[in-house]
Input
Amino acid sequence: MAEYRIWSSSAKRVLQAAYLQEPDSVPVGPYMGNHGAKVAGVKISEYCTDARVMAEAQLKAWDIYGQDIIPVQSDNYYIAEGFGVKVEMHEDSTPTLKKPVIEDLKDIYGLKVPEPYRDGRMAVYLEATKRVKEQVGALAAVRGTGTGPFALAGHLMGTERFLMELAMADMDPEGEEAAALRHLLDLTSDALIEFAKALLKEGADIVQAGDSLASIDVISPKMYRKWAFPYEKKFFKAINRELRDKNAAAILHVCGNMTPVLNEMAETGANILELDYKVNIAEAKQRVGGKVCLMGNLNPSALLLMGTPEAVDAEARKCIKDAAGGGGFILGSGCEVAYFTPKENIRAMINVARQSSYPV
Output
């Protein structure tokens, strides 16, 4: 394994886990995007459009919780807008898709990869990442966001239309429809690559492909292997040098029960697989824990939002027992922490990690 110039405290703890080592204790990083706006008392509409507000909200959340990973995250459309997608803004909630940019397959060939510092709202996330990193340095790992190639293609075309076109293309794999969709996924991969490189430049310790439309709850394992896996793999391969140069790591996050394709996910080149609560993390550790760091996987709704601190404590301890042995594990939420999640539940999760020194 290569030697990585990693710093002290939380940044070191997280990166050691990402590269399958045993840190001093189990790292912890609940995915608190818009929850940061809640605890900071700012509107989501301001949070997702103003880099200063986003950064200050996440720093406020970190001051409250003291977790190892600070996520600079809010909504889904910051890259898609760079391609020309129209969204509807709301006073105090995340933007929603108003109009896709692809009405006909031929429109795909007119798309250009957007420039992260100029197009869409990517610049908001880049500046917010820079602001957070300047404040915390090595005291916390800063996690940038990133829409996966498959999910981003769905935003550009509209989810239902995109999935229908994929089904049609499967009937004629060498036809014009399939060629257009492959071109689209190459474009969305390239867009994510450019955005991730910009995030690393601005100080992100972690970048990601959040590809939740590629969930096995939505598509078949066969479709995942054909239409999602190759483009996720392209992304992680393309940023590998930057990750090493910047002493950083990359996450693949896909919601749902991804058990049938865990092996493929581990082969994408991601350092970390962030797993949903639907995945048995003990089984995941057994199958791919020697290849990739696992992150998860407390239920963000039934447990963190609606459960008790005692229940969170018990489940967090079980996750650590099932997956932390030997290193290569980060305690996290299965998906994004809900906006109204009680602070005491998040604190209970973090406290368990702080009490879990290696060897566990």
Remarks:
- The radius of gyration is 19 Å.
- Confidence is low (pLDDT under 50) at residues 1-8.
- Strands lie at 69-71, 86-90, 93-99, 141-143, 206-210, 249-254, 272-275, 293-298, 329-333.
